[in-house]
Amino acid sequence: IKGIVLYSSGFSETGPEGMEFQDEIVRIARSGGTRVIGPNCVGPYNPSARLTQQFILPKESGNVGVISHSGFLFYYLLLSVANRGLLPSKGVSCGSDADLTCVDFLEYLGRDPETTIIIAYLEGIKDGRLLEIAREVSQRKPIIVLKGGNSEAGLRASASHTGTLAVPTTTWTNICRQTGIVSVD
Question: pTM of the full predicted structure?
């Protein structure tokens, strides 16, 4: 098995025991050559491969790649793209980024010939490669990001939702300036 999607919650966002359990799952998976998407996610979407989780999602492939930490906002972004006359190429709801991260998917969509624009909802960043990957990808494709956790309530919600520490707004602004990410409200 090359990859698994952990849909359920109840891992890193619940505290130290949940984090240990999550780390154990990733360790076991990786020891067998398996990669993990999630937990706390809805996983990948690829209409050209007929991989669509919900009947309401577009079945035709377009050029907009979508990444989201939130499953609800993943569906919302996919449908918003379609409602504006565009179509998503591929996407992923990556949840808590236990193994494969939003940055891995940014890198993938950056290389995907079907994707010419990338949009994302991010609650926080665990993967330190963001600066390098975003700089590289933004030279070829626009990266538009709606970042969660911009208030005290948002910071708490982000931590309880995916167990991710949100990036403070001033830090995020500097990251965008250095990488070419277009941050939207």
Answer: 0.90
